[in-house]
Specification:
Layout lengths: L3 H4 L7 E2 L5 E8 L2 E8 L7 E7 L12 E2 H9 L3 E5 L9 H23 L1 E11 L1 H12 L6 E5 L8 H4 L13 H6 L16 H10 L2 H6 L26 E6 L7 H13 L4 E6 L11 H18 L2
Parallel strand pairs: 4-6, 4-7, 7-8, 8-9, 9-10
Antiparallel strand pairs: 1-5, 2-3, 3-6
């Protein structure tokens, strides 16, 4: 049975609610304050910066969910880490979610040097699951482009059958009634989910029915495929795309490993510096594999970020 940890994209890989953040409001949408946590800032030292984007299928998750095995080594190496919230679906649809990510990136780029003393010429972006998808989106929808991208078990196509058709894995679980699914979400925009364990029931319902793209985007990929062009990183890779390190487990039952394979092939065809770390037997979040192997994966991500943000 799906667990709430899996839905949030935090399965096993060393995620936590880290202490010591300085919190800012980077955007106000209506009456909603959308926030970012900043770690490692030092007024005496100008540092490179990592933007972290949390997972949760664009439906759940919050900025406090950061991979400590990425965050810790980067802080030790003299980086600032900025973790952001963004408005969540289905209350907010995909164009506005992407607008939040773009606005967060612009806020870091323009305000960050004065607020927390960062060098925006040395900025990378990383995230897990849906955060991996949003990381890949920043490869073409923000300016200046990041120096490096590290999507963990992310995806570059939100229209294909894995998301737009009933999912065999999730349909092994008891069917979520429609009324229960929609009762678990609301109508008012939110950027931090309420502390209730039932919001993930909406996600499970979407996967069982194959309606995630419709509910999150408000458009039908079967009849409006062209509309999704601007929201599928796979369709937007050019030679200008940033260096990218893809990380994915071969036994991922939430986001198929094939999603990172497709991105890897596209990046290679366009001549983009890239690498795919294949985690044999790894599930979603790779928390099911040996801890030493998990540490090696994150260590390679840290090296990749440092190499491209020197």
């Amino acid at each position: 049975m799906i667990r709430r940890r899996d839905f949030l994209g935090t399965l096993g890989a060393g995620f936590l609610l880290p202490p010591g953040a300085q919190t800012y409001t980077y955007k106000v949408a209506g009456n909603l304050e959308i926030k970012a946590d900043v770690y490692g800032a030092d007024p005496a030292v100008r540092k490179p910066v990592l933007l972290w984007i949390h997972g949760g299928a664009l439906i759940g998750g919050r900025r406090g969910q950061i991979a400590r095995q990425l965050q810790g080594p980067l802080l030790d190496a003299g980086y600032v880490v900025v973790s952001i919230d963004y408005r969540l679906a289905p209350e907010t649809k995909l164009p506005e979610i992407i607008a939040d990510v773009k606005d967060a990136y612009a806020w870091i780029s323009t305000k960050g040097p004065k607020l927390f003393n960062i060098d925006t010429d040395r900025m990378a972006v990383a995230g897990g699951s849906a955060g991996g998808y949003l990381t890949l989106m920043t490869g073409f929808c923000v300016k200046p482009r990041p120096k490096a991208l590290v999507p963990f078990w992310g995806y570059g196509d939100i229209t294909s059958e894995w998301y737009s058709r009933p999912d065999p894995f999730y349909n092994k679980q008891p069917e979520v009634p429609k009324d229960e699914a929609y009762a678990s979400v609301g109508t008012a925009p939110i950027s931090e989910p309420p502390d209730k364990p039932n919001r993930f029931r909406f996600y499970l319902y979407c996967r069982q029915k194959g309606i995630w793209p419709k509910e999150v985007a408000g458009h039908d990929p079967d009849t409006e495929s062209k509309w999704f062009d601007a929201y599928c990183p796979l369709r937007n890779v050019t030679q200008k795309y940033p260096p990218t390190l893809l990380i994915h487990g071969t036994k991922d039952t939430d986001v198929p490993y094939e999603q990172s394979e497709l991105m890897a092939r596209k990046l290679k065809r366009e001549g983009v510096e890239s690498e795919l770390i294949t985690v044999e037997g790894g599930g979603h979040g790779i928390g099911n594999i040996d801890k030493a192997e998990v540490s090696k994966v994150y260590a390679r991500a840290v090296v990749f970020i440092k190499t491209h943000t020197r």
